[in-house]
Amino acid sequence: MNVEQAAAAILHTIHADTRPDADPPAQRLVNECAHATSAAGTSLTWSVTHSAPLTIAATEGTGHALELIGFILGEGPQISCAETNRIVLRPHLGDSNTEWPGFTPEALHVGVKAAFAFPLRLGAISLGALTLYRNHPGTLSEDHLTTVLAYAAAATALLLDKSATETLHGDTIDVLPPILEDPFTLQADVHQATGMLSAQLKTDLGTALSLLRAHAYSNTKPLTSVARAVIARKLFITWDTSNFQSPDGTENS
Amino acid sequence: MTRETRLAEVFITLADTLTDTFDATDLLHYLADACVELLGIDAAGIMLSDLRGGLKLAASSSEKIRNLELFELQINEGPCLDSFHTGQPVLNVTIGEAREKWPQFEAVAAASGVKATHALPLRHRGNIIGAINLCSEHTTLLTEPDIALGQALADMATISLLQNRGNTEQAVLADQLQAALNNRVLIEQAKGILAEHAKITPDTAFDLIRDHARTNHNRLLHDAENIINGTLHLHPTTHHPKTLNP
User: Fold this and answer.
1) Smallest CA–CA separation between B1 and chain A, in Å?
2) What confidence tens digit (pLDDT) does each residue in A63-113 have?
3) Which residues, in sequence order, are CB contacts of B229 under 8 Å at separation 6+?
4) N or C terminus of chain A: which is more exposed, having fewer CB within 10 Å?
C-alpha cells in the first residue's frame, strides 16, 4: 500500500464513526497514530501564518501535556517543525538542552526520551505538524516511519478541511465533505488552478483551494474538471458564485 | 566547450549540492536537463519514492513529459514504474514494443510523439528511491556509452540528494524526498499565480520562471516562493518571447 492508499484508509476509518458521542476525526487520528507507532503520545498542531499554533487534538496524558508546554513556552518539536516545514527528528532528546531549553527538561520530566515531528503542508500552504513522543530513545523503525508518513498525509487532509470550514461562511454550505484521499495526490491542475484563483481573488492559496473545492461540490463536478476550466479561463470563480462571503464579510462579485 | 569539459562541469554541479544556493528541486531539474543535453534524448522526467512503494513526480524537463509521467502514475503502468519496481534499467523500448508491455501508456506516449522510451533506477545503498524516464522523439536508440553515462548521472544525483545531511537514516531520506515532492506542488501553485498575473498559460509560466532562475543564477524554488509571496513579478514581454495574448 503506498502513502495515498494508506492515508485514504486512515481517513475512511476516522470519518466512519458518525455517532454524536464519537471522538472527532482529529482525536481519532492522533489516538490511532499513537497506537500504530507505539508512541507515548501524539499531537496535531494547527499553525497558520501570523497566528500562534493551536492544538487540534492530542492523546490523553503525554500528548496533551507536551502540547500545553509547547504552547506556553512557544518552543518544541511541533513549533520548530511548523516553522521550518521540515521533518524534526530528535531520537535522543536528553542529549542536548540548547535547542528547546524550556521544553526539553519538561519533556524529560514526564518521561519522554524521543520526539519526531512531521510537517503538514501542500506546496506553499503550511498547515501545522503531527508530533510523536516516545518514552524510549532511538530512531523510528522503517515500519513506524512509513506509518507516520501515512498519518501525516491524512492529517494534512484534515487540516485542509478545517481551513476550508474556517474560510467558508456562506449560506449554502458550511462544511465541505471531507477529503478522503492524500491531498498530495491532487493533480497538478488543481495546484495550478489554486494559484490562478488566489491571484484573481487576491487571497491566500489555502482560501483559493477551499473555494475551488466549494465550487466543485456545489456544482457536483469533479475537482479536476473545475480546475481545468479555471486554467482554460472558461470559468471564473468569485466569492459570490461560490455562495460564500469574503473573510471581511463583504460580498464580492 | 568540448564534451569532456561539459561533462566535468555537469558532474561537478551534480556533486556540489552542499551549498545554500542549490536544493533538491534544482538538483532534479538539473539532472533532467543534463540527460536531455548529454544523452541525445528529447525529454526526461524524474519520479521519487514515497517510501511505501508508491512513486510521485518530482521534476521534468518539459511539460509534455510531465503530463506523460502523471498519466503513467495514474494508470500505474510504464517504464518508470517497471524500473522502480525491479531496480533495473528499462532500455530502448520502441513504441511498437511498448504497445505489448504497457498498452495504455503507449497510446498516450505515441500521441505525444514519443518513438522510444527508457528508464533508469535511482539507487542508493540497496534502496531504490525513484526512477528517471527518458523519451526520444526519434527511433535512434541509446548506445552502451549513453546508458552508462545516464546511469552515472542518475547515481551522482542520487548520492547528492541523500548526502545533504550526511545521514542515511530512513527518516532523513523521507525528509529529503518529501521536501522535493512538496516543492513540486509549490512550483505548480507559483505557475498558476504567474499565469494569472501575466495572462499566459501555466506551461509558459513555468518556462518564464525557469529562464529567470537560470539567467539570475537563482534557485527555482526561491523564485517560485517569491512569486507566491508577491515579491517577484515576471513579465513575458521582457523575459520571454512566448505569450498567449500578445
Assistant:
1) 37
2) 999 999 999 999 999 999 998 888 999 999 988 778 999 999 999 999 999
3) none
4) C
> Nearest CA to CA, how far is A181 from chain B (Å)?
14
Mean pLDDT of B163-168: 53
Q: Exposed/middle/buried for A5, CB within 10 Å: 0-12, 13-18, 19+?
A: middle
Between CA A66 and CA B115 the distance in angstroms is 58
Q: Could A122 and B188 be called an inter-chain contact, meaning their C-beta atoms sit closer than 8 Å?
A: no
Residue with the bigger pLDDT between A51 and A173: it is A51
Q: Distance (Å, rounded) from C-alpha B185 to C-alpha A194?
A: 11
Give every CB contact of residue A145 below 8 A, 6+ residues apart in sequence: B51, B170, B171, B174
Asked whether the beta carbons of residue A3 and residue B70 sit closer than 8 angstroms, the reply is: no
Test B51 with A149 for CB contact under 8 angstroms. Answer: yes
Query: Range(s) for CATH 3.30.450.40 in chain B?
Result: 3-164
What residue type is assigned to position A253 of the chain?
Answer: S
Tell me the ipTM for this assembly.
Answer: 0.89
Q: What CATH topology corresponds to B183-239?
A: Arc Repressor Mutant, subunit A (1.10.10)
For chain A, percent of residues with pLDDT exceeding 90: 65
pLDDT in tens, B101-133: 999 999 989 998 999 999 999 988 778 889 999
